[in-house]
Each structure stands twice: as structure tokens, then as C-alpha cells.
Write a sequence for this structure.
């Protein structure tokens, strides 16, 4: 990186911490991962500002704020807003919408001006749809592993294994039917997003992000675009 000011972007998700070190004006980013906030100490010492998005890990946020205070670095915690960068949130109680979803929406609007669905596949699967600059709503569903765990915990004589196929077909054993049924549900969320967008426009895009995006590699439609972390790209808008 050059001598430009550097910024640390941090996405504290349900299962891990994702982060990126960027400079102002940078368009791409390398997504890195860590478990403990103390692993970021040396990076925090180098930056002009830390930008944080968290879906509820209050203790981790407090640890980061303390680290930044120790090293006299500004730390900004981003929250969902009713309107930001000209984009309007569909939620009447906008503070209850996860900031990860909101930042992914902000990132998506920077990427495309077409009607767009933002699908985040992870611990939970979410979909949000934006038409022009209006977020019109979305869905929250259990992620692949949560679906599988819920099915196994609440049914009798249903069992599964860890042989997860990324290619959708029909199962011919109970473990295959469980794994492929959950996979069908994940892929179905994307296809329903496409069906919804088609009601509003003939041209649209679907942006896929999240740790489980590899589960839908069977879907090859040209309107699908894959991103390692849209939350961090959304944080870049605040630099």
C-alpha cells in the first residue's frame, strides 16, 4: 500500500471475525479472518480509523473499542439507518434490521444501479431486494447447517452424514435426502429472489455473498455475481 491513510474494516459475524486493511479510493479488498480481537492489535496501530459492523457480539465490540482507545485510533461502529447514501430502508423500525444486511445493501447499490437482490449465505441465509433506491424488503431463513441441525433434532429416524454435495440431485438414502433437501432450500432462496425481481424488471442482478456461497455453484445464470464479503465493501462507503 502507498502512504495514503489506511483503514481497518471489521465485520463481526455470527461465527467469526472478517477484516480488511484498505486505503482511501481502493476498489478491491483482501478478506482475512481471525478469532480474537487481540490478533488485530498490530494492524490497529497502523491505521487512521477502524470501522466496525457487528450483529450482536457486544463483548468483541467493547474489546475493539478498548484496543483503539489504547492506541488513540478512532473507532466507528456502524448502525442501520432509515436512509443512507440515498437508499431507503423498508423497515419501519429500522434499528432492528441487522447492520450486516444494511451494509450489503449499501455495497450492492455501489456495484449496480439495476434492480438487485442481495443474498447472504451463512449461519442464517438472508435475501434483500432493492428497486431503484428503495429497499422493498427481504427474507431471513436458517442456513444450511442450521436447517440440517433442526431437522435432525426434531424428527425421529432421520439421520445424516457430512458428505455434502454441491450438485443438486435426488437422494437415494436418508443422509443424501437430508443433505440434498437442505441444499435445495438454499438454492431455492436464490431462485425465488430471481422470480421476485422478474416481477419488477426484465434486467436485474443477484449478488451472492457469505461463507456458504459455494453451495450454489450449480447455478450458472449470468445475472448471478459472487463476492467474498459485501459487508466489508459496504463499510468502504464510510471512508
Amino acid at each position: 500500500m502507498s502512504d495514503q491513510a489506511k483503514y481497518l474494516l471489521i465485520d463481526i459475524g455470527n461465527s467469526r471475525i472478517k477484516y480488511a486493511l484498505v486505503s482511501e479510493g481502493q476498489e478491491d479488498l483482501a478478506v482475512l479472518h481471525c478469532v480474537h480481537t487481540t490478533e488485530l492489535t498490530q494492524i490497529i496501530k497502523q491505521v487512521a480509523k477502524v470501522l466496525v459492523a457487528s450483529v450482536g457480539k457486544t463483548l468483541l465490540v467493547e474489546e475493539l473499542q478498548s484496543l483503539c482507545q489504547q492506541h488513540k485510533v478512532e473507532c466507528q461502529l456502524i448502525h442501520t439507518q432509515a436512509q443512507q447514501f440515498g437508499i431507503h430502508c423498508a423497515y419501519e423500525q429500522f434499528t432492528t434490521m441487522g447492520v450486516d444486511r444494511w451494509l450489503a445493501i449499501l455495497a450492492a447499490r455501489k456495484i449496480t444501479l439495476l434492480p438487485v437482490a442481495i443474498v447472504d449465505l451463512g449461519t442464517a441465509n438472508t435475501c434483500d431486494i432493492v428497486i431503484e433506491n428503495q429497499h422493498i424488503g427481504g427474507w431471513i431463513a436458517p442456513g444450511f447447517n442450521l436447517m440440517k441441525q433442526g431437522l435432525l433434532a426434531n424428527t425421529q429416524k432421520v439421520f445424516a452424514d457430512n458428505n455434502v454435495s454441491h450438485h443438486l440431485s435426488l437422494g437415494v438414502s436418508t443422509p443424501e435426502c437430508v443433505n440434498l433437501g437442505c441444499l435445495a432450500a438454499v438454492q431455492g432462496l436464490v431462485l425465488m429472489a430471481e422470480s421476485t425481481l422478474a416481477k419488477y424488471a426484465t434486467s436485474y442482478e443477484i449478488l451472492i455473498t457469505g461463507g456458504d456461497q459455494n453451495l450454489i455453484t450449480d447455478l450458472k445464470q449470468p445475472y448471478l455475481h459472487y463476492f467474498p464479503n459485501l459487508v466489508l465493501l459496504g463499510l468502504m462507503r464510510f471512508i
